[in-house]
Amino acid sequence: MRDYRQRQGVDVNSLVLSDAQRTSVTDPVIKKLIDLIPRANFTDSSGAARFVGSAPAAVVVDQWTVDVSHKLNDSNLVHGYYAVQRDDRNEPTLLGNTIPGFGDIRRGLRQIFTLNYTHILTPQTVNEARFGFNRISFTGLAGAPLNPADFGIRNGINRSGALPQINVAGGLNFGGPPQVPAGRGDTSFVASDTLSHLRGRHSIKLGGEFRRFYNNGLHARLRNVSISFGSSLRRRKCQLVFHCTRRSVNQHRARCARSLRPG
Predict the structure, then answer these.
(1) Distances in Å between the alpha carbon of 55 and those of 106, 154, 181, 225?
(2) Residue 183 belongs to a domain
(3) How many Cβ atoms are within 10 Å of 154's Cβ, its own excluded?
């Protein structure tokens, strides 16, 4: 058994709202979104408010193995092996977010199992049967499973999952990510049997093998939308982009008239 724990943080340096920009907002939807953005703790040379800090990026890995070999008698031997690894980690900035509290959580489960049975028929003849499987399971979820409807965002999604991914040109990105929820599960099965025979200076082997592979993918039918703002937090217009996996054209664009600082 092996356990791996790593507590770490990823450096972030992001554009945020100044205190003056926060107090000037009157729109109730924008007010709720602003509460998700950390307050500025630094002002750069251009006068822009920024948040400089770190976002947690913990990693947890657990692994167990079992190896058993048993001699039934002089002619029969059984050997089994099983290993499982559980991987749980969060990626706060890998999919574009620039402030703490968002990103995605990735959970993986890997398994392998083998079973080997050896039967000695005669000193010259041995039969070996094998069975095994290998499975990889992975899921990706939003680090902030929020419901857009709770914030007054009418994007057609009324469930806990993720906010639209909001991007402000200049270096602020939060919400989403639109790539999740997603996941996959791959499973392989193998069964084989081999008969080996020695005769004088010759060796003969006969046998067969069967393989089966299963692939299962998980993707949301309607993924979260993303909202892109222009070069300033003062812009009134933004672009709303819907990502839909059910259509060949996977982006539908509409215009909205809200920003982080209306007026």
Answers:
(1) 16, 29, 21, 24
(2) yes
(3) 10
Residues 6+ positions from 45 with CB-CB distance below 8 Å: none
For position 236, what pLDDT does the model report? Answer: 40
Residues of the chain with pLDDT under 50: 222, 231-263
Q: Is residue 142 part of a domain?
A: yes
- CA separation (Å) from 236 to 4, 32, 111, 191, 229? 48, 17, 51, 63, 8
Q: How many CA atoms lie within 13 A of 80 on its CB side?
A: 5
Residue 195 placed within a domain? yes
Mean confidence (pLDDT) of the chain = 82
Task: Point out which residues pair with 166 in neighbouring strands.
Answer: 174, 227
Tally of domains in the chain: 1
Residue 263 within any structural domain of the chain = no
Contact 159, 6 (CB under 8 A): no
| pLDDT at site 220 | 64
Residues of the domain holding 244? 2-256
Q: Could you tell me the end-to-end alpha-carbon distance of the chain, in angstroms, rounded to an integer?
A: 60
Cα 146 to Cα 35: distance, rounded to the nearest angstrom: 13
